[in-house]
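Researcher: Re-running this chain for the archive, since the previous output was lost when a drive failed. Same request as before.
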Amino acid sequence: MEQKTVLVEDVPHHPPGETPLSLGLKGVCPRCGKGKLFAGWLKLAPKCDVCGLDYSFADPADGPAFFAQWAGCIPAVIFALWLEAVYAPPVWVHLVTTLPLLILPCLLLLRPLKGWLVCSQYVNSAQEGRLIYIDPPDEKEQS
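Model: Regenerated structure tokens:
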């Protein structure tokens, strides 16, 4: 008979020996480290199929795209500028060399970066920022 671990109180944590980065790169649940995080290439699963963690808390927004473009596109643009300055090739050479260098790193980095950000949100209990309004002190209190 298979035993399932049931958490009475969900305190954000990660499995021993794992970090949000390692969990995200593997695409596994940030709580148990076993269930799948993704239901498709970039679509998050609704919940962990092992421990039942609801992934509705996760909102990586544009973070993965920003990091993927920063890490993948900047070197490709530098290469394209170097290629143009040194060899001045025709446009088709840029399409064959530079275009794949722009697209492939972004596509390959999006999934692990999204997994890392989702796992980091869980482990660090990240939430949307909220403003707290404090009433100004009364004039009588200032005197």
